[in-house]
Amino acid sequence: MALIKRYGVYLAIAAFFIYTLYSLSFPYQPEGNPIQNDNKDNHKNGNKDKESSKSPPASKSYNWAKVPINYPVESMVTLPTGAPAPLPKIQHAFKENEDATAKNIRETRREEVKKAFEICWKNYRQKAWMRDELSPISGGSVDTFGGWAATLIDALDTLWIMGFREEFASAIKDVESINFGSTPMAMINVFETNIRHLGGLLAAYELSGEQRLLKKAKEVGEMLYRAFDTPNHMPKTRWDFQKAGAGEKQTADQAALVAEIGSLSMEFTRLSQHTNDPKWYDAITRVTKVLEKEQDKTKLPGMWPIVVNADKSDFTLDNSFSLGAMADSTYEYLSKTYALLGGLEPSYKKMYEKSMATAIKHTLFRPMTPDNADMLMAGFVRVDDSVPTLAPRMEHLVCFAGGMLALGGKIFEIPEHVTIGRKLTDTCVWAYKASPAGIMPEVSHLLACANTTGCAWDEKVWKDSVAAKADLGTDKDPLQNIANLRLPEGFTSIEDRRYILRPEAIESVFVMYRITGEQQWQAAAWDMFTAIQQHTATDLGNAALLDVSAENPPKQDSMESFWMGETLKYFYLIFSEPNVISLDDYVFNTEAHPFKIPKPKA
Ligand code: DMJ
């Protein structure tokens, strides 16, 4: 018992520390920030940001392929051999002859998305080239992920898919010049480097066949491989690059976010497949084996908690579970890695089925909304004394789950998952529509029905829940106070009102469209795109928003690389012909980089 108490305190501290780190990477700025609220006064911000825009000095440079390994593995797990098994058909059987009017509308919309991308690309090239991000209001630039041109690498395959072939070709020589052996940053986020840089380079290589990109992917792979050089071969997640480069011994983290441990399998598998070097597949298989071993031992068997002890390979201590932030892509990668391995590694299927059975049972709730729509959302579960309690939380990040379940339902032929995927995606589309800006907030809570089969809208119940939660006290006019909270009907609180150009909602809408062929998803996508463009577009690109519940949301001088790598790519693809990056041929990594699914020989 004393041990449990000690671990409980330790975990709480570790979780708080990690959550703080996570929040710091997406800092909230108050509404009154003049940088955001006075776009006319940009020159001031420009000056300020330009100073901070100077490239910081780079560190010593390491040739990662030659940095000695402290804990070599005794034997290597190799890629499964044999002919890939055929996957069931994923995409809807689209008609060859598209109606002329529908085609015209679709193509016009696709071109609008392309134009938005082009503005961002040109300004990134002109004002922030080789830096991680363009600051879309001031025209400054920042380094957030190693200083290795994150936006350039993240956007490469989007360039290719959108047909900007000259820009693609002319960018390659600059990609070649990126030095992954050196960084001005103290710590490297292994997960982000993996999904953005390694994923981006691999997908751009696959699409173009350009060997120089595979060479760069290998360089990133050599670097990331050193993060696995720990006694138990579990990776460091926030990684001291300099110490590792100097050959210092390292141990895996005692408190790591499960998403940062569990979302390396697609890229590492793919790198081994392309290089015929098994070491990356070996590295990731060691993590997969721990996930498999721990899956039934956690406080919510079937799912893994948000914080895990990688150093002890113990994933059983934390009591928080979610399909959303800090866990998300661990679940996403199960079905997709299965597909990438040609269906030859059954453990990914088993883990998908078990984890989704638990998630469906414990994390889903039906929101109570004025139109009584039959929808679902995935919330946040805490387990105390073996009793799970579900909080009806909604994150923008969790909106990927609709697409994940719909795709998993197709891959593994589980129709119920496709139905649930649709209902989850419906809630995200509804949340966009319900918000005054037409864009859903980053984090909120909804009013949940008592069960997932449904309940009728009750305005009084909603208002009472809002009042109780907000502790509106004994003010004379509690209803006016509710209005001041600026909550759309059905929302009980909004904890984070930002929209930081995230892709998850359009990602699921895109998957639902390709799987069902229903035009309603294109219509929903267009509403989302027009709202996002209306509020986020700047002269130089698109900016994150601070408050989507304001009619004119104030902007933040930030444009993460996933806007061009991921969000705009999904918007473009939903208005493209369905055979462009077909879901029958590709799986997307969690940063929307498409990898080709191996097929059996005809
Ligand atoms: C992206 O980097 C990836 O989609 C990741 O899985 C989650 N966070 C961002 C986008 O919101």
TrEMBL record:
- Give the InterPro entries listed for this entry: 6hp_glycosidase-like_sf, Glyco_hydro_47, Glycosyl_Hydrolase_47, Seven-hairpin_glycosidases
| UniProt similarity note | Belongs to the glycosyl hydrolase 47 family.
What is the protein name given in its UniProt record?
alpha-1,2-Mannosidase
Organism phylogeny: Eukaryota, Fungi, Dikarya, Ascomycota, Pezizomycotina
Return the Pfam families for the record: Glyco_hydro_47
GO BP, one example? ERAD pathway
UniProt enzyme class: hydrolase
Chain sites annotated for binding Ca(2+): 590
Q: In which pathway does it act?
A: Protein modification; protein glycosylation
Q: What molecular function does GO assign, one term? A: calcium ion binding
